[in-house]
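Obj: model holo form, ligand = Z5A.
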Amino acid sequence: MHTSGKFIVIEGLEGAGKSTAVAIITQAICAAGYTVVNTREPGGTAMAEAIRDIVKHDWQEEKVTVEAELLLMYAARAQLVQNIILPNLKKGYWVLGDRHDMSSQAYQGGGRQVDQNMIENLRAITLKNFRPDFTLYMDVEPQEGLKRAKGRGELDRIEQEDLSFFERTRKQYLFLAEQDTNCVVIDTMQSMQSVHKDVELAINQFLEC
Ligand code: Z5A
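Output (holo structure tokens):
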């Protein structure tokens, strides 16, 4: 499918500061004269939001299997890409995603240690060759990210995983970011002010290209 808008994605562990980065980038893209459509994953359509509730929910005695979690992430993504992302890109709008496929590769591939071939097959079915034009990976040490997330209130099912899960997820994120020439890593262990500056610099450099 031919698209004329750009697809930008913010990635990172919980508490990395994605929400703030989304606000800064939205403002920068609007200032450059483009219309921005914001999405989040899992979620962003009525059905995908229902899936979000399911995956974030704690089912107590019923164990959520690694396979069910993985398939639900891709089901939500299929709904969002086909109903929202691609049609808006085709109209020439820019789409700013709070998480996308890199999350599945990092959380399910790294954290849950799902076989890479299984993820590749689901990617091929769901996304074909569709990829973000630009990704900002907000890097945070898991302990610090979880501390920030806890400061905001109750932790959901995935956030309750042990530290080693988030360490594997971060390691995979860093590996993926290094392989991706369209990805910039932002160090979010700095002050909020320095993080803001780095995010602004990264988006402005992309806008100038
Ligand atoms: N998931 C998955 O497993 N597979 C997939 O394919 C996809 C997702 C798509 C979605 O949860 C969950 O689904 C997520 C991954 C999984 N689960 N986990 N665990 P979500 O969307 O509800 O949660 P999130 O994406 O992790 O959002 P978050 O916790 O809100 O993170 P954030 O947006 O990066 O954080 P924030 O709200 O911007 O900042 C958190 C707090 O930290 C806030 O009070 C800030 O003021 C503070 N903060 C931020 N930056 C700083 C700095 N630099 N210094 C000090 N304090 C700071």
